Amino acid sequence: MKPELSSNAECALELLSPADAQVLSQRIVEFNSSQVPFTQSPPFTPIAYGFKDDRGNLLAGITATVYCWRVLGIDVLWVSEAHRGKGWGSKLLDAVENEARRRGCGLAHLDTFDFQAKSFYVKHGYEIFGELDNCPPGHKRFFFKKVI
Asked: What is the rounded distance in angstroms from the CA atom of residue 48 to the CA atom of residue 133?
């Protein structure tokens, strides 16, 4: 279902293209920098580590971004079911945190669901600072932080 679009004499509300959405993201980055100057350049630096088998198949990995003020945002940490419980997740998390420290970061954050890795992150020193109930329905989403 399309949202109801309204207009006035000056402009009309419309769905944005992916290119327009990129411009929008760029504008908020510019605004943020004008309010609190960035302490790193470039403002967003991706970091990714993984484990692959001898055929190049990805068995586990982590993606994160060091952003704007030397803050580490962890996006994804995944270990294939066959390799869970072998310490790979800990090695991935340690690697990304160490790289973030090397880049001058002092804070990390991430989110996870109750059916994912809540206890794993608690075990690694992450602290819950927020949660969403019923997200997805019948579950919780947790937001974590850690001074690194």
From this structure: 30
pLDDT in tens, 101-126: 999 999 999 999 999 999 999 999 99
Nearest CA among 58, 64, 11, 66 for reference residue 39: 66
Beta bridge partners of 12: 7
Distance CA 10, CA 65 (A): 39
Predicted structure pTM score:
0.89
- 79 Cα distance to chain centroid: 17
Rounded CA separation 142/97 (Å): 19
**Nearest residue to 65 (alpha-carbon basis) of 30, 110, 20:** 110
39 Cβ contact partners less than 8 Å away, ≥ 6 residues apart: 68, 69, 70, 104
Phi and psi at residue 137, to the nearest 5°: -45, 130
Q: Establish whether the linkage from the previous residue to 136 is cis, with ω within 30° of 0.
A: yes
Nearest 5 degrees, angle CA 75-CA 23-CA 100?
Answer: 30
